[in-house]
Amino acid sequence: MENLFLLSTTMEFGDIPIIPIIIATAVLLFIVLFLRFVPLTLWISAISSGAKVSIGALIGMRLRKVSPVHIVRPLIKCTKANIPIPVGQLEAHYLAGGRVDAVINALIAAHRANIELPFDKATAIDLAGRDVFEAVRMSVNPKVIETPMISAMAVNGIEVKAVARITVRTNIQRLVGGAGEATIVARVGEGIVTTIGSAQSHRDVLENPDRISKTVLGKGLDAGTAYEILSIDIADVDVGRNIGAQLQIEQAEADKKIAEAKAEERRALAVAQEQEMRAEVERMRAKVVEAEAEVPLAYAEALRTGRISAEEYLGLQNKKADTKMRENIGSANMEMSINQPK
């Protein structure tokens, strides 16, 4: 019996005991697995800070592929800041793709500044893609947005250029679904253009630049945006081109080109009519020549048939020669009277 007991308790392989080695290996493996699933130093930090997190919760985070560091450290922050938030809500926000540390920083900043910011609202802002911590900072410390150079034309045709500085702070309640900085700049630019355009003279704008800021500020341009406009200040105002005179010059140039085009059209029409008249004259001349060519034939036919005698034909020829001579003498006398000096 004694030999069987020694065999069952030692089970030596040569001179090496097997059971103690197996037990030691199992204990070492358990310690390794425990340290793998349970960040011991992180758990000790949470317990010493008063944050309520159990070892089972840490193991569950490992099984759900949640980094305990990204949950426990923000939990320690909010515990020290006296902002009670359950571990499950932090883990749910992490699994949704949110930035837990940024949300906790925003909650702490809002708590210190007496700004009402519930945890659900902060997580919604973070999941919407906005920087919730930066939004809280802008609520405490307003931001100044400078517009680009905005140009508009007064009623008298003079261009006025202006640059405005917009002081805004975040409106936490409208941060989800509200328009951003680009909308604020666009609306202020539109208001500046409208105000300058309604001024009778550019001098009115130069003398009272605060008129622009007061008019634009009274339009409620921050409606539907994630910001609240605190002030609009005109940083720079300058006179640009005389757009009215330039437009008149361009209009006069356009009218001139139109008149020239119409004159060219009339000239082309006159040339076409002249060419048509010349063609008509040439056709008439051709008909006259054709008719004159038939006269000798008619005379020959008349002489042949006896409807006219030779003496009558010669008399007609003499009359024609006499008429032509008189026409030549008359033309020569007229030219001499014209050329004779007075």
Characterise this structure:
65% of the residues lie in helices and 12% in strands. The chain has 342 residues and is α+β, with helices and mostly antiparallel strands. The longest helix has 63 residues, at 243-305. The model is unreliable at 1-14 (pLDDT under 50). It is built from 14 helices and 6 strands. Strands 3, 4, 5 and 6 form a 4-stranded antiparallel beta sheet that branches.
**How many angstroms does the end-to-end distance come to?**
177 Å
> What percent of residues adopt helix (DSSP H or I)?
55-70%
Overall body shape: elongated
Count the beta strands. 6
Strand content: 5-15%
What structural category arises from helix and sheet content?
alpha+beta
Quick check: average pLDDT?
78
Biggest pleated-sheet summary: 4 strands, antiparallel
Radius of gyration: 54 Å
Q: H/E element string?
A: HEEHHHHHHHHEEEHHHEHH
Number of helices: 14
Low-confidence stretches: 1-14
Descriptive key words:
two-stranded antiparallel ribbon, alpha+beta, 342 residues, 6 strands, four-stranded antiparallel sheet, 14 helices, disordered N terminus, 65% helix, elongated
How is this fold's topology laid out?
Layout: H1 2-10, E1 12-13, E2 16-17, H2 19-37, H3 40-49, H4 55-63, H5 69-80, H6 87-95, H7 100-112, H8 119-127, H9 132-140, E3 143-146, E4 150-153, E5 158-170, H10 181-198, H11 202-207, H12 210-217, E6 227-242, H13 243-305, H14 310-339
Antiparallel strand pairs: 1-2, 3-5, 4-5, 5-6
In short:
The protein is an alpha+beta fold and 342 residues long. It has helices at 2-10, 19-37, 40-49, 55-63, 69-80, 87-95, 100-112, 119-127, 132-140, 181-198, 202-207, 210-217, 243-305, 310-339, and strands at residues 12-13, 16-17, 143-146, 150-153, 158-170, 227-242. Residues 1-14 have low confidence and may be disordered.
